[in-house]
């Protein structure tokens, strides 16, 4: 529904506009609703929107004609010849036609606002690309305006300027010439453009219409002159004389207009590159193409007026295509006529020759002035609209905030002034051909970005990309991108590389500094498209143990007390899937809406705040156990599904809120009498429920959330996960875990103790089984190795503890385990640990249970029943002797771990046995785990159910 809003708004706005301009039926009184007078006055202030012809066709035609049609047609044919000249136009128009197709597609996919190409790209590709390309397009229009102003100055000086040698050939040559005088004339012309643009777009539209009429008349007379004017000799400009540092024959001072002759055509057929008499530089295909391409860069003139168009989606495609076809025909006709009737010397040494062969000389001069002035105004007003759109989108913060100011009629006068100031700076370059390459590369970069935007929308297969203009495919977009890129580097590789680098710098700047926008990010659509494709290719039937990686579902009751665990588990995921799961108790049938939808923002903000790479999956269930079952069943897609469940330990430790204000970070569990802390302690970013404490043991702890989960259900969750072939990890004492305490750079400096990670790969609840090579033990080793491979933990040392009894070969067991580690490519130090005393406590308890005295008065049936119960207890427990473990044994093993591992490690990895088959023993099982891990510090109890490691290559 939200995605349709802009289009719906556009249609509603169109219908409202139609209703506003539709006259009432004759004789019918018009009802005046409240506020009509205010609305009428507002409408009077708002200018009427422009049509296709006035808003798109005329600005595009004049921008594309501009300097090239009157001042550089002879330059192109004279330097490149007719064949290469037409080839240049074909290449240029091929590139812009591919871009025009993309512009038409994007512009017909929804409502357009002010900003033209910038608006299209930013709303299609997102703020990063949109903002960076917007700045490049703004600079392209600024430089383009300066280029056309300099072209006009060149024409004025050629007509009215006093030659540098002081020889005045005409009474009209009254203006002094030179660099500073040319700059003065350019400044005056730029001020004239500024005044017109400050008045508003409609004055500009009226002015351009008059200019359009003049240009069409002049073009008509030029075509007539080729047929009506006879052969004549034309005096070349005096600046065409050879410069002192040039050797060779002197250039002629006159040239011929021969009329239509085959000899003239053959002489102009092929390329003959020479020195440009205005700049003194040698011309090449690339430099000539750069100048010529400026005659094609006006295709965005109509798009830049998108904010002033009556119906942009309708006007831009039709007006732009019409202007492109018309200009292409005119350019090629002029090339052929010029090549058939003018000497090569005339074309190379006099850029204003069309004036001398016209039936009325001043007419061409007027056409040059009008077309270049119109193109300059078009670029200036286009630059101001782009800058205004950039400022309004706040992509650059307060830097562009002055450009937001507008007049009562909506004209962004501040943007016009800023654009004019930058144009004035560019005018110091002095020569048209000097900045032609820069302008061309900027425009080519923008055209390539438009093609990229259309290509991305097409490849993303977004359902809402439904342009009414369908004469494009992804092939046309790719051809446009390749054509723009190739021509950029052919024109000037240095300028092209610098402009791309500058654009990428702007992209990074916007990415890190600008606020999140609501326009949509094409990158997300493309990523979705590719991820779906690759997920379908990720076949679970092709899984191999060599490429196993942890894919973890971490159950979090309240993130406030689980920050340490969340960040630690992020370290052991090894580029695997990491999902934060949460269960909220409730029944959707009794609720008005899903309560989880409003919580996702807080969870995702937590992921950003902790700088972890994790997904969030929340579920609603009638119990925590059922909720975890749901998440284990549904989390992930295809081959990316959790294979390991991580739970916080169920104990009575006090939780600590790690998301409150830093000054309050030492506060422990909040008192139950004041269940909600002051609101100002909670950052507004997170809206998780506060921690609570009561006399109930399950009210505090890493996993418990009040009375939501009991010990019986907690162990049942562990058993469920193992039945579903999921590895299980229980994390204890991670409530206040802070990895920076262990992994800060100063910790590894000389004089500081090393960081250790301890692994006890034996089932400590089964002293009769000391195997180190079962699936669970290997899983412990794998997770410890994965942690050690993480960059932050790379300097930590793995310690592997080998529990041995009297009579066992310590040396043999150590060598055997060392060989296994070598085959597994795990670097760890093995420490043999004798535990005869602890094992003796275990077997002592077994003997007591076996020799359990029975009452002599008991009947034979009672004795038999007692034996059956004991046998049932023995059979239903797994491991069989786990229920017979004494507290003394567990505490002794706990002390063994504490005293043996010195200095204390950062984290311990212990073997987690399976829960007993008899659910009545769940509480005993949980108590045994609690005693075993008492006061051990951050500890992971791990049980693996699937092979995860191999010695094969």
Automatic annotation (TrEMBL):
Membrane-spanning residues: 50-74, 86-112, 133-158, 178-201, 208-229, 282-302, 323-346, 366-391, 412-429, 435-460, 472-494, 500-522
UniProt-listed Gene3D superfamilies: Amino acid/polyamine transporter I
Coiled coil residues, start to end: none
Gene Ontology CC: one annotated term: membrane
Domain Amino acid permease/ SLC12A: 55-553
Segments for region (Disordered): 19-44, 846-878
Transmembrane helix in keyword set: yes
Gene Ontology MF annotations: potassium:chloride symporter activity
Name of this protein: Solute carrier family 12 member 9
Source organism of the structure: Takifugu rubripes
């Amino acid at each position: 529904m939200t995605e349709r809003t802009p289009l719906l708004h556009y249609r509603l706005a169109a219908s409202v506009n139609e209703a506003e301009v539709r006259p009432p039926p004759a004789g019918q009184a018009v009802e005046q609703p409240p506020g009509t007078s205010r609305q009428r006055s507002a409408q009077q202030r708002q200018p009427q929107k422009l049509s296709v012809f006035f808003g798109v066709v005329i600005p595009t035609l004049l921008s594309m004609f501009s300097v090239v049609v009157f001042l550089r047609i002879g330059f192109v044919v004279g330097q490149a010849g007719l064949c290469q000249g037409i080839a240049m136009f074909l290449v240029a128009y091929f590139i812009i036609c591919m871009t025009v197709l993309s512009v038409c597609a994007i512009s017909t996919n929804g409502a357009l606002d002010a900003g033209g190409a910038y608006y299209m790209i930013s709303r299609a590709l997102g703020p990063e690309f949109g903002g960076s390309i917007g700045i490049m397009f703004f600079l392209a229009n600024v430089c383009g305006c300066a280029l056309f102003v300099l072209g006009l100055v060149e024409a004025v000086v050629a007509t009215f300027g006093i030659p540098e040698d002081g020889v005045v050939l005409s009474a009209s040559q009254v203006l002094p010439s030179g660099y500073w005088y040319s700059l003065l004339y350019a400044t005056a012309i730029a001020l004239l453009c500024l005044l017109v643009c400050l008045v508003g777009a409609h004055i500009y539209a009226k002015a351009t219409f008059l200019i359009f009429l003049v240009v069409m008349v002049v073009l008509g007379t030029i075509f007539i002159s080729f047929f009506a004017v006879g052969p004549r000799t034309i005096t070349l400009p005096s600046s065409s004389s050879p410069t002192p540092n040039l050797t060779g024959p002197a250039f002629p001072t006159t040239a011929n207009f021969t009329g239509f002759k085959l000899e003239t055509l053959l002489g102009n057929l092929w390329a003959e590159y020479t020195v440009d008499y205005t700049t003194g530089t040698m011309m090449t295909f690339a430099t000539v193409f750069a100048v010529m391409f400026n005659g094609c860069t006006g295709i965005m003139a109509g798009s830049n007026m998108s904010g002033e168009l009556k119906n942009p989606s309708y006007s831009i495609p039709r007006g732009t295509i019409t202007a492109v076809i018309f200009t292409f025909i005119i350019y090629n006709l002029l090339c052929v006529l010029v090549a058939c009737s003018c000497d090569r010397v005339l074309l190379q040494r006099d850029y204003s020759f069309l004036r001398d062969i016209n039936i009325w000389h001043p007419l061409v001069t007027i056409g040059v002035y009008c077309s270049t002035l119109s193109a300059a105004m078009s670029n200036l007003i286009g630059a101001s609209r782009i800058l205004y759109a950039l400022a309004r989108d706040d992509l650059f913060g307060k830097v562009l905030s002055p450009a937001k100011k507008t007049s009562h009629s909506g004209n962004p006068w501040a943007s016009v002034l800023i654009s004019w100031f930058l144009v004035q700076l560019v005018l110091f370059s002095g020569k048209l051909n000097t900045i032609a390459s820069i302008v061309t590369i900027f425009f080519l970069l923008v055209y390539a970005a438009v093609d990229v935007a259309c290509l991305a929308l097409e490849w993303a297969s977004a359902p809402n990309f439904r342009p009414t203009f369908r004469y494009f495919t992804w092939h046309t977009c790719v051809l446009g991108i390749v054509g723009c890129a190739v021509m950029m580097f052919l024109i000037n590789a240095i300028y092209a590389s610098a402009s791309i680098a500058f654009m990428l710098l702007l992209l990074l700047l916007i990415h890190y500094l600008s606020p999140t926008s609501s326009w949509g990010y094409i990158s997300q659509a493309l990523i979705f498209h590719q991820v779906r494709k690759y997920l379908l290719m990720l076949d679970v039937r092709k899984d191999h143990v060599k490429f196993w990686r942890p894919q973890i579902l971490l159950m979090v009751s309240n993130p406030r007390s689980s920050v340490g665990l969340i960040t630690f588990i992020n370290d052991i995921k090894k580029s695997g899937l990491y999902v934060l799961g949460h269960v909220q108790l409730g029944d959707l049938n009794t609720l008005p809406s899903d309560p989880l939808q409003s919580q996702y923002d807080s969870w995702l903000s937590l992921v950003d705040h902790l700088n972890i790479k994790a997904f969030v999956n929340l579920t609603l269930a009638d119990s925590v156990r059922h909720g975890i079952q749901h998440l284990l069943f549904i989390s992930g897609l295809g081959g990316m599904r959790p294979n390991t469940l991580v739970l916080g330990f169920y104990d009575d430790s006090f939780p600590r809120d790690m998301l409150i204000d830093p000054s309050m970070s030492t506060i422990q569990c909040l008192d139950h009498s004041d269940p909600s802390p002051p609101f100002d302690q909670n950052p507004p970013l997170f809206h998780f429920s506060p921690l609570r404490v009561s006399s109930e043991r399950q009210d505090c702890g890493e996993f418990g959330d009040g009375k939501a989960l009991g010990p019986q259900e907690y162990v049942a969750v562990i058993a469920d996960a193992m039945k579903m072939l999921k590895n299980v990890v229980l994390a204890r004492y991670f409530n206040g875990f802070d990895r920076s305490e262990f992994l800060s750079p100063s910790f590894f400096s000389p004089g500081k103790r090393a960081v250790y990670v301890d692994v006890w790969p034996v089932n400590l609840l089964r002293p009769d089984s000391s195997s180190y090579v079962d699936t669970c033990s290997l899983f412990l080793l794998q997770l410890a190795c994965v942690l050690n491979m993480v960059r932050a933990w790379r300097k930590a040392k793995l310690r592997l503890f080998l529990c041995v009894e009297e009579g066992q070969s310590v040396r043999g067991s150590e060598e055997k385990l060392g060989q296994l580690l070598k085959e597994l490519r795990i670097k760890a130090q093995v420490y043999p640990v004798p535990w005869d005393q602890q094992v003796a406590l275990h077997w002592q308890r077994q003997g007591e249970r076996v020799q359990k005295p029975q009452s002599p008065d008991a009947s034979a049936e009672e004795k038999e029943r007692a034996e059956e119960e004991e046998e049932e207890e023995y059979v239903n427990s797994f491991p069989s002797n786990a229920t017979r473990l004494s507290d003394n044994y567990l505490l002794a093993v706990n002390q063994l771990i504490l005293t043996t591992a010195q200095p204390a490690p950062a984290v311990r990895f212990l073997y987690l046995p399976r829960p007993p088959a008899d659910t009545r023993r769940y509480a005993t099982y949980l108590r045994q785990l609690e005693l075993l891990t008492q006061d051990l510090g951050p500890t992971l109890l791990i049980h693996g159910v699937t092979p995860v490691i191999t010695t094969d290559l």
